[in-house]
């Protein structure tokens, strides 16, 4: 298979993963898979949370495609797709776990309009502690925060986390 075709398969897979992630987040993680994902909408008590199992679950197709392409003779297309799924996983890890949730301490501050938008959209997603009434399910593509705030208001702020009072925040900090 020509190299350019493999690059296009890789890039198309990375792009398609955003749609797949949206669907899984919206209708599985905030649906029947809430029993694992709920831990992610609560304060973390340790380094790991039950939601981390999704990272393992979503790595399986990548592993299978890479094995199929490299070891089992499925073809280079499978290797390119497996690499695309793995690349999206790495992007997700960097954006979601490191930049937004700071599971690795850093001093990065979002300055570009794009980064500010997706970080704020994800924070608005986490303003809701329940599986219902949540907004913004994508990771790399997100509606404008003004639209998300309007959606939260239209939902009657159902499940929205109570704002911390300054005194409480000062005690915790």
Description:
The protein is mainly α and 173 residues long. Helix content is 60%, strand content 0%. The protein is built from 7 helices and no strands. Helix 1 (3-29) packs across helix 4. Mean pLDDT is 90; it is low at 165-173.
Number of helices: 7
| Total number of strands | 0
Helical coverage, percent range: 55-70%
What Rg, in angstroms, do the CA atoms define?
Answer: 18 Å
The residue ranges in which pLDDT falls below 50 over 5 or more consecutive positions are: 165-173
Roughly what fraction of the amino acids lie in strands?
under 5%
Span between N and C termini?
Answer: 56 Å
- Sheet/helix structural class: mainly alpha
Largest sheet: none
Along the chain, the helix and strand elements come as: HHHHHHH
Q: Give the rounded overall mean pLDDT.
A: 90
Query: Which assembly state applies to the chains in this document?
Result: single chain
Q: Looking at the structure, what is the overall shape?
A: globular
Care to give the gist of this entry?
With 173 residues, the protein is mainly alpha-helical. It contains 7 helices and no strands. It is globular and about 55 Å long.
What are its keywords?
mainly alpha, single chain, 173 residues, disordered C terminus, 0% strand
Write the layout of secondary structure elements.
Elements: H1 3-29, H2 34-37, H3 53-70, H4 76-100, H5 113-125, H6 145-154, H7 166-172
Helix pairs in contact: 1-4, 3-4
């Amino acid at each position: 298979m020509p190299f350019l075709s493999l690059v296009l398969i890789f890039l198309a897979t990375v792009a398609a993963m955003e749609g797949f992630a949206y669907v899984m987040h919206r209708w599985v993680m905030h649906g029947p898979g809430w029993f694992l994902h709920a831990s992610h909408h609560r304060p973390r008590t340790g380094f790991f949370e039950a939601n981390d199992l999704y990272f393992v679950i979503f790595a399986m197709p990548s592993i299978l495609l890479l094995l199929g392409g490299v070891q089992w003779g499925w073809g280079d297309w499978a290797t390119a797709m497996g690499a695309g799924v793995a690349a999206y996983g790495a992007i997700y890890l960097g954006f979601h776990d490191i930049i937004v949730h700071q599971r690795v301490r850093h001093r990065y501050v979002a300055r570009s309009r794009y980064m500010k938008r997706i970080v704020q959209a994800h924070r608005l997603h986490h303003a809701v502690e329940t599986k219902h009434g949540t907004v913004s399910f994508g990771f790399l593509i997100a509606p404008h925060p003004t639209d998300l705030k309007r959606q939260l208001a239209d939902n009657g702020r159902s499940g929205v986390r109570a704002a911390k009072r300054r005194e409480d925040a000062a005690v915790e900090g």
